[in-house]
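In response to reviewer comment 3 from the previous cycle, which asked for concrete evidence that the modeling workflow produces usable outputs, we include below a single protein chain processed end to end. The sequence was submitted unchanged, and the resulting structure tokens are shown without manual editing.
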Amino acid sequence: MKIEVIKKEDNLMEFYLEGETHTFANLLVERLHRNKHVIFAAYTIEHPILMAEKPKFKVKTDGKVKPEEALEKAAQEIFDDAKKVLDKWEGTIKK
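The workflow returned the following structure tokens.
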């Protein structure tokens, strides 16, 4: 995964997330929408063949948190949930 920042302001950030597809992009946007300080979060895939694994994101906050802070929080929540699932799985198959 590679992040390429296109535009960065106090409460706005646009970036490409190279190496990811709709699967992770949808999950990340969904997590961003849960943050009360995020007023806009979306992504597009500019060309379905040439840019299929390079979604372009736009995240805007209310200014109380920076977009990169909101992204970090969303990524940590995704990681924590994945760890919970893995722990449950390991507990189930070790029985």
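The mean pLDDT is 93. We consider this sufficient to address the reviewer's concern, and the full set will be provided in the supplementary archive.
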